[in-house]
Write a structure and sequence with these properties.
Strand content: 15-25%
Order of helices and strands: EHEHEHEHEHEHEHEEE
Shape: elongated
Structural class: alpha/beta
Distance between the termini: 47 Å
Strand order of the largest sheet: 3-2-4-1-5
Largest sheet: 5 strands, parallel
CATH architecture of the largest domain: 2-Layer Sandwich
Number of strands: 10
Number of helices: 7
Length: 223
């Protein structure tokens, strides 16, 4: 069996019990180095680990797919939740295996940010630029989100579409300069937060950052 498992945004208290159970009983665990460090204390002494990098991920996934087909229990670990930002890797896993695989949701940094910032998802849209390939359609979608007076929770793309690049793009496309913005780094761990207006966002942030752009006109809930 092979599972793709979300392990939360970094703090062990946000890993689900089911994820820990699967990881603790796995024959093979696969993931990027940063993600593997989060769950290393749950591994059995004889669990084999495979470290992915962007350059070798295709060949590594083909290798672990063979182990899966031999009957070993394989866990591919994902940061946060697969369905918020990780679907491209899921597609590569399924391509290597030749079939759909089991997915186990985790807690996403976007959910943590919504809690910190006290915004609700029925008034908020989530968009991730943490993907390979053409992001132009997603950039246009971000403009429409803000024009529709919705909050936007955004995962930037390292390192060519980071928070200050996003701000510059939006200002160049006529988005109001006075949108309130928050940029959080290393959410749930040694976190830090920048707050200000869209027009003032020109700082550099790490690749472990997530941002919130608030709508201009607060939405009034009606009971």
């Amino acid at each position: 069996m092979i599972y793709c498992v979300g392990v939360g945004p970094g703090d062990k208290k946000h890993i689900t019990n089911y994820a820990v159970e699967l990881i603790s009983n796995a024959d093979v665990v696969v993931g990027f180095e940063y993600v593997l460090k989060i769950i290393e204390t749950y591994l059995k002494s004889n669990t084999k680990t495979y470290v992915l990098t962007y350059k070798i991920q295709v060949s590594k996934l083909e290798e672990i797919a063979r182990l899966h087909h031999q009957g070993l229990t394989v866990i591919v670990v994902f940061m946060g939740d697969i369905h918020f930002s990780g679907f491209q890797l899921l597609e590569r896993v399924e391509l290597a295996c030749g079939h759909n695989v089991e997915t186990v949701p985790g807690i996403s940094s976007s959910q943590i940010l919504a809690s910190r910032a006290r915004v609700c998802f029925d008034e908020t849209s989530f968009i991730t630029f943490h993907r390979r390939g053409n992001i132009e359609p997603f950039k246009k979608h971000l403009i429409s989100i803000l024009n529709d007076n919705r909050n936007a929770i955004i995962i930037p793309r390292p390192f060519d579409f980071m928070p200050k690049d996003i701000a510059c793009f939006l200002l160049d496309n006529g988005i109001d300069t006075t949108h309130q913005v928050e940029v959080w780094e290393n959410l749930t761990q040694a976190e830090s937060c920048w707050t200000g207006f869209l027009k003032d966002l020109n700082q550099d942030f790490s690749d472990i950052s997530i941002m919130l752009i608030r709508c201009l006109v607060p939405i009034v809930s009606q009971l």
